[in-house]
Amino acid sequence: MRPPLFAASALVALAVVTTAAQGTPPADWPQFRGTPRLTGAATVAPPATLKLLWSYETGDMVDSSPAVVGGAAYVVSGNGELHAIDVASGKAQWKYASGHLSGESSPAVAAGMAYFGDLDGVIHAVTTATGKGAWTFKTGSEIKGSPVMASGLVIIGSYDTHLYALDAKTGALRWKLATQGQVHATPTVVGDTVYIAGCDGLFRAVRVADGKQLYEIQTGAYTGASAIIDGDRAYVGTFDYEVLALDLKARKVVWRYSNPDRKFPFYSSASLVGGRVVLGGRDKIVHAIDAATGKKAWTFETRARIDASPAVAGGRIYIGSGDGRFYVLDAATGAKQWEFETGSGITSSAALAGGRVLVASTDGVVYCFG
């Protein structure tokens, strides 16, 4: 392990964010963005001053994001291996070899099983107690989005243009929904409804129980990011250089935000904190946007594009950049409070679990801070 380079400054302790899903233990972060609502928010804030606790070499690049359940972290590396790592020590518990290359599909963990997709279009279910495969399901093309668990279902999209719902125990197909383009984004689940923005320029609301489409909203843009839902509004970034606010009742776009100086896509999925929509852009900037008006609140510039999605807790924002640095920002002002240099780009989104911060870099190293 190479010695880390990092600098930290003392931070003021702030109130704990309380927007994670009810019933999820505070020490857990069981999927991409934390919960099926994809809030990226933790109930327990990490320490104000972070230090590196351990690092773990996966042996291949990592574009996906960690999940943390029951004291174990689960990370998928590019060679298709699912790693189970003891959070307390940073030691390997087991590895599952899928036999396929994997990309950004992050694991989701529920009821003793871990699920992820690979670039050959296969969805894997792995028993967390043993690291043994339980079942697989083959779609028609690569999978880059992450699975979401809802009502005993694994819900995940494929580049074969379909959104799938599989029985979590058996892998049996329960329903699939055809779209008009690749399904890249991770679906957001709120109550009995799945929300997903697609590469076909449509934002859809779909019933969890049977996959029936309830309605759609025209976005007019290719979308790889996942949406965050707040009441009757959805917020999502697009490849048409904009962040959109959608009114789910009126079923229309209510505001559009873009960087007036740089035209780059938004691939990062948004968080909401303090009445602001926060996300990264391929313009190298973290943007905070007033959720009511769509006006800029603040920006923070890094040295490379930002595909990672922010995590939030205790009035702070945790986000990595392609510049190889992991940043902690003040949510109110955007001021940098801490950074850590990994030496390799970061596309992985952080997991905040039990006061610890876990994130991976593209050279295959998983870092744990606390």
Strand and helix layout:
Elements: E1 5-8, E2 52-57, E3 67-69, E4 72-76, E5 81-86, E6 92-97, E7 108-110, E8 113-117, E9 122-127, E10 133-138, E11 148-150, E12 153-157, E13 162-167, E14 173-178, E15 188-190, E16 193-197, E17 202-207, E18 213-218, E19 228-230, E20 233-237, E21 243-247, E22 252-257, E23 271-273, E24 276-280, E25 285-290, E26 296-301, E27 311-313, E28 316-320, E29 325-330, E30 336-341, E31 351-353, E32 356-360, E33 365-369
Antiparallel strand pairs: 1-30, 2-33, 3-4, 4-5, 5-6, 7-8, 8-9, 9-10, 11-12, 12-13, 13-14, 15-16, 16-17, 17-18, 19-20, 20-21, 21-22, 23-24, 24-25, 25-26, 27-28, 28-29, 29-30, 31-32, 32-33
Structure report:
With 370 residues, the chain is mainly beta. The protein has one domain (5-369): 7 Propeller (Methylamine Dehydrogenase, Chain H), CATH 2.130.10.10. The protein is built from no helices and 33 strands. The protein has strands at residues 5-8, 52-57, 67-69, 72-76, 81-86, 92-97, 108-110, 113-117, 122-127, 133-138, 148-150, 153-157, 162-167, 173-178, 188-190, 193-197, 202-207, 213-218, 228-230, 233-237, 243-247, 252-257, 271-273, 276-280, 285-290, 296-301, 311-313, 316-320, 325-330, 336-341, 351-353, 356-360, 365-369. It has a five-stranded antiparallel β-sheet, with no helix packed on it. Strands 2-33-32-31 form a four-stranded antiparallel β-sheet, with no helix packed on it. It is globular and about 50 Å long. Residues 1-23 have low confidence and may be disordered.
